[in-house]
Specification:
The chain is mainly beta. 9% of the residues lie in helices and 30% in strands. The chain has one helix and nine strands, in the order αβββββββββ. It is globular, with a radius of gyration of 18 Å. It starts with a helix and ends with a strand. Bound molecules: copper (II) ion.
Length: 179
Amino acid sequence: MKIVLRWMAASVCAGLVLIGGGPVPAPPPAQAAGAPAWMHVDAAHKRVSFQVIAADTGANGTLNFNLYANGQMTVTVPAGWRVHIDFVNSGAGALPHSLEVIREITPVPPQGIPPAIPNAATRNLVPGIPPMEKDSVDFTAAPAGRYLWFCGVPAHGIQGMWDRFVVSATAGAPSVTVK
Ligand SMILES: [Cu+2]
């Protein structure tokens, strides 16, 4: 929502500047406001799928999900929706990685723990999935609460390989925000 509001404010400013003539630039596509290309929403069936790349470029020393680490990204899903994650380890950094949903806790645990939502974890949670390998995860987003996407490989979480995952009792649709 923060991104949406910022975009609206920018549009209003652009409109004022252009009063008196000239084409008003087209607004950015809706994708820019909370729906990255790696998220696909099936609202009719209350399903959302995410393509998650572990070690997406060298961000945070390769310890990131889709570029983000240290809670920079918040993924929100309405409670009760089905979640599918296609997970791939890009191989950047030549390290294994995993992904699981844990409760939001500080500090994060030293390595993987049982997931807070049943089935919300890739295989090889602690040893990790080797470079260039994939896994997929399916679970139901419940109960509502604040969670993390967390890499269970020892010390990766402590070094920032986590982002925020919110299961919302009030959100009408999935969204992704980045700060
Ligand atoms: Cu990792």
